[in-house]
Design a protein that fits this description.
heterodimer; A: mainly alpha; Cytochrome Bc1 Complex, Chain D, domain 2; 3 strands; 41% helix; B: alpha+beta; Immunoglobulin-like; 3 domains; 5-stranded antiparallel β-sheet; 4-stranded antiparallel β-sheet; 17 helices; 15 strands; 42% helix
Chain lengths: 314, 487
């Protein structure tokens, strides 16, 4: 060891440690001293490099926060711009699929699983934006207000083309010629039937749907039904999809199947309305929505048994 | 280190002092050669081993398929949800390091650490191009002659080739090696492949070619951690100062018999050290225990006819015993002490548990999700339908025919999106594509509340089971609810 136990003035009174030959930082805590071990050179150069990098970064990219926005970098990069680019790229990515769906006949979608899959996904996204307000998140509808789209009972028909037509033109849109429309008379409000007669019709309807046993009231109701209701709902109450008349023999009741609800419906029907969507959505989106609704569990195959045309026209 | 500069010139930043390790031969040098050969062969060669898995899976023995989220290792295929096997391997690696460290000290640093292996390789390149230690020092200190320029160019080119080879081998683990090699050279490989090779080439070139022991001394946390894990029973490269001191040349020792120790201060131990330290100053952070100084010292001791082992692997206990005039423990006893035994037991227990669970795992897996919106659907015939999403995981590299069946739900009818309710029963069959997760939307209809087994309950538990129909009947099942309207 060299003779360096002194405290040379040139070192500012710092001591040189014997064992390592390194100078101390010049402080002492209860006899404990700290070595001022030199940093390696490469560390220094790395540090300088980060400074140079930071200068370049500040010039090229948004960096200094100003009053309402940061300085724009020379490159013009922004995260908002990145988002636009990504959205555009995504639109480009989806374009071929959307074109294929647009070009395909809707009735053939189920035969092309990958296209059907894409249409159902696209429809699900559109459904969440435009339809859930009334029909609910899973298409379950709202009791006594909006029909469920997941069951196997359809007012206007549940095959792909028919669903597409219903979504396109809506139901009971007064300003639109091709809209689905029909009107159930207000038998009670307009005095077509007496309250007692309405009660008899209710009895009959509850009989054919298996909720009550036949009796005198339902027997009287049968005649009234044949005279007033069968023209739309069918002689046996099997419903009529051409006019959106619901089936009365099953377990599904949009506005309720108990006596009070049925009495209220016959007295003053609701005649529900759905907007037409061809004025708001493009045909491909409507097609995808139809595919999604069809996929919810109640979708019907084409060529229904009652010989109705399959193109969706009633 | 032991020669401080005048304090006025002391800088806060220290330029690297060149290390020019001298060539040496001996047991540990040969051992290092062997380890280097094995580790480099494993690193460069593994991706090229082929392993037949049939037509539906890659035939590369070790493949980390990030794009498809699969990890292949010979017979074993690991899916992302089985990542705990990788976690287990990492824990085993950690405990393995504890084990090695508590038994033989910094053996990882000295022999197997990539930084050590590549530094060693690059130092051999130095010797190949520039010559041995003295020639290297002369060249480094000499002026820039044509010869120096030529030698430096040649050396850095070789560095670069090795570095590029290293980076290139790395990406082979992440894609089919022959295809990737072809794509790489024809410019068709992914940008990330070129980027990875560039980065790893740069790091290998810089860390192996220039920073070398500085990585160990300044950058790596592992020496500090290891220092904490060693104890007085761990093997260390030790200079036996009680035997070596005071130092004196052979001539002086002859002149004054008995006045000097065995160390003749020939500095061979310093000359061969790849990190440039003097082991005679005692254990220090710069010592990676590569044991090359043992080889160097033994060679000298043999030449001058003194016993070998002036520098040797010793535990602190041995040091104390030998200083007191006793002898070191036999090597078997040194390696087998409670800590190593405990580490080894934990290590092997984890390994055995993982092997066992690997052998037991089923390769057909079911996950069921009950659709909540709507919870149930009233059907026109009075039945209730619930919707489920099945995720059927076929983890085998072949398409499989499987059944899906329900039990515990009376009168249940099952159908999928592709089918219809007509003719639906309690059981379905389907074909799952090889090595994939199949999502199936499952509809289950059952009689309304009054007809259910459990009577008026709005919620009923039942079981969905999937089984292989192609010889291996093992499968999976899940119990889930069927909901009905409350009455």
């Amino acid at each position: 060891m060299a003779d360096t136990k002194d405290f040379p003035a040139s070192a500012g009174g710092k001591r040189i440690d014997d064992a390592t030959g390194t100078s101390t930082v010049g402080h002492e805590w209860d006899g404990i001293e700290e070595l001022d071990t030199p940093m390696p050179r490469w560390w220094l150069w790395t540090f300088y490099a980060t400074i140079v990098w930071a200068l370049g970064y500040v010039i090229l990219y948004p960096a200094w926060p100003m009053v309402d926005r940061a300085t724009e970098g020379v490159l013009g990069w922004s995260s908002r711009g990145e988002l636009q680019k990504e959205l555009a790229a995504d639109a480009r990515r989806r374009a071929p699929t959307l074109d294929a769906i647009a070009a395909a006949d809707i009735a053939e979608l189920p035969a092309r699983p990958e296209l059907m899959q894409a249409a159902v996904q696209g429809g699900a996204a559109a459904f969440r934006v435009h339809c859930v307000q009334c029909h609910g998140a899973g298409g379950a509808g709202v009791k006594k207000l909006y029909p469920s789209l997941t069951d196997d009972d359809w007012l206007w028909g549940g095959d792909l083309a028919t669903i597409q037509y219903t979504i396109t033109h809506g139901i009971r849109n007064p300003d639109h010629k091709e809209t689905r429309t029909s009107q159930m008379p207000a038998f009670g409000r307009d005095g077509i039937l007496e309250p007692a007669q309405i009660s008899d019709v209710v009895s009959f309807v509850r009989t054919i749907s298996g909720q009550e046993r036949p009796g005198a009231s339902s027997a009287r109701g049968a005649a009234l039904f044949a005279a007033n209701c069968a023209v739309c709902h069918g002689p046996a109450g099997q419903g009529g999809r051409a006019v959106g008349a619901p089936k009365l023999t099953d377990a599904i009741w949009l506005y309720g199947g108990d006596r009070d609800s049925l009495t209220a419906t016959i007295t003053q029907p609701r005649n529900g309305v759905m907007p037409r969507w061809n004025s708001r959505l493009d045909p491909v989106t409507i097609k995808m929505l139809a595919a999604y609704v069809y996929s919810l569990g109640g979708g019907e195959k084409l060529a229904p048994a009652d010989g109705k045309k399959v193109d969706g026209q009633p | 280190m032991g020669n401080p500069e005048p304090i006025s010139r002391a800088s806060l930043y220290e330029a690297r002092k060149g290390v020019y390790p001298k060539k040496v031969d001996g047991f540990f040098r040969r051992f290092k050669w062997a380890i280097m050969g094995i580790t480099l062969a494993i690193y460069y060669g593994t991706p090229w081993i082929r392993w037949d898995r049939g037509p539906y899976a890659p035939d590369q023995a070790v493949l980390i398929d990030l794009a498809n989220r699969r990890f292949y290792m010979f017979q074993i295929e690991i899916w992302p949800h089985e990542f705990y096997y990788v976690a287990g391997l990492l824990i085993m690696a950690g405990i393995g390091l504890f084990l090695v460290t508590s038994a033989v000290g910094r053996a990882w640093c000295g022999y197997a650490c990539p930084q050590t292996v590549w530094t060693d390789l690059f130092q051999h390149v130095d010797r190949l191009v520039d010559g041995d230690r003295n020639a290297q020092i002369r060249l480094a200190q000499g002026r820039w002659t044509l010869e120096k320029v030529a030698k430096r160019t040649a050396k850095y080119l070789i560095y670069l080739v090795i570095a590029f080879w290293t980076g290139g081998a790395w990406i082979m683990y992440f894609a089919d090696a022959p295809t990737l090699t072809h794509d790489f050279w024809t410019g068709q490989a992914a940008l990330v492949a070129y980027g990875t090779v560039a980065v790893l080439t740069a790091t290998t070139f810089i860390l192996g070619g220039f920073m070398r022991e500085q990585v160990c001394v300044y950058m790596c946390p592992w020496p500090r951690i290891q220092t904490a894990m060693m104890d007085e029973k761990s093997l260390l490269v030790t200079y036996k100062d009680w035997r070596g001191e005071p130092r004196g040349s052979v001539k002086r020792a002859m002149a004054h018999p008995g006045a000097f120790g065995d160390c003749i201060d020939c500095n061979q131990c310093v000359a061969v050290c790849p990190t440039g330290i003097d082991i005679r100053q005692g254990p220090q952070i710069g010592c990676i225990t590569c044991a090359l100084c043992i080889d160097a010292c033994d060679n000298v001791m043999e030449q001058i006819g003194r016993p070998r082992g002036l520098i040797d692997y010793c535990t602190l206990e041995d040091v104390a015993a030998e200083k007191a005039g006793g002898t070191a423990k036999p090597i078997r006893k040194t390696l087998m002490h409670p800590r190593t035994v405990i580490y080894f037991s934990i290590w092997s227990a984890i390994g055995l548990a993982m092997l066992f669970s690997l052998g037991q795992r089923t390769r057909l897996d079911l996950a069921v999700q009950h659709e909540r919106s709507p919870l149930y659907v009233q059907l026109s015939d009075g039945h209730i339908r619930n919707n489920y999403t099945l995720k059927l995981r076929n983890m085998e590299a072949r398409p499989r025919r499987v059944s899906v069946a329900v039990s515990g739900l009376k009168g249940a009818e099952l159908w999928t999106e592709a089918g219809t309710r007509e003719g639906a029963g309690q059981r379905l069959e389907m074909t799952l594509p090889a090595d994939s997760v199949t999502r199936v939307k499952l509809f289950i209809a059952a009689p309304g509340a009054g007809e259910s087994e459990s009577g008026s309950g709005a919620r009923q538990d039942f079981t969905i089971t999937t089984r292989g129909l192609d010889g291996d009947p093992r499968g999976d099942s899940e119990t889930i609810q069927f909901d009905r309207p409350e009455t």
